[in-house]
Request: fold
Amino acid sequence: MTPVVSIVVTCFNQADFLERSVKSVLAQTFTDLECIIVDDGSTDNTPKVAERLISSDSRVSYYYKENGGVSSSRNFGFKVAQGKWIQFLDGDDWIHEDKIRFQLSYSNQVNDENTLFYTDYQRVFIDKDQNIINRQENIVGCLNTKQLIERLLIPDFLADSPFPLLQQCLLMNRSVVEKKMFDERLKALQDRDFTVDLLLANVNCVYTPIVGAFYTKHQSNRTNNWSYMKDYYIMFYETVCSKHKDLINLCQVGINFLLKEAIREKEHNNFYRLVKLFVPPFEFLNRRIKIYNISIIKLLYLIRLITPSFLIYEKARGPRSHKIISIFNQLFGNQKQTQEQL
Reply:
């Protein structure tokens, strides 16, 4: 018989975590489901772990594909999924045992053909020995479409609220996923692009108040690599702004931050990609200066290329730099005092 729910577990070299993830699926109080493991070209012992899980429960299936990123793995998993409801789960995360049943209990209150359910979640910090060293509860709450879109366009490190539509927290009618597949160019931040497009397509997002997912943070997370993530933040904003020009203003918090970093770090390519997306004003030197002209921003960048960092950025100043600045301050201070006496 066709299962009601398909849970697609995507993994890449996550053999140490995969069993816990899949077992959280098999332990669901709602049992009419299938668990699809999609191995994105792992080189560890993921196939052996998957084989053991398949032998323990007939609801588990395993597919191996060439490495293409989590977006391609989710798209692959959806194509083989049979359920009316779809859940995607990363291979190092897990879900609450009552998540699926609880979310489906809300389906009689909505038009489920166009519905996406979302939950709260817990951030779980794991050390190199697989020990849980900290937990952080993230209560998303009930947000409207405008609030969800605005938050999705702000990087987490610049926001004062949890990421609202974590993929591990979602349960979607398959008709919703048919509206929008994952962008396979985005190896990171694809969740944001995916859910922004769904919200703009008027998908009904329903909050189901349960800590439904456990999202891990550990040493092998690619999100720990800022250089890697920064490139995908820029690509994400380029993608959003090219599709939805009316959202450009809502992207400016993140774009402004990335533009400042490109100037500070003298990142030539990033600067010129970002300045194309930027909407003035540009706030500089702790918001003491506001620049409204793009040409002046470009000139500022050219000046930055030949200006020592310690003259602009306090964090770049060592003892020697502070001494040099102190001498200049004393020199110009004495000159000002002399002029006032004259």
About this structure: The chain has a mean pLDDT of 90. The chain has 13 helices and eleven strands.
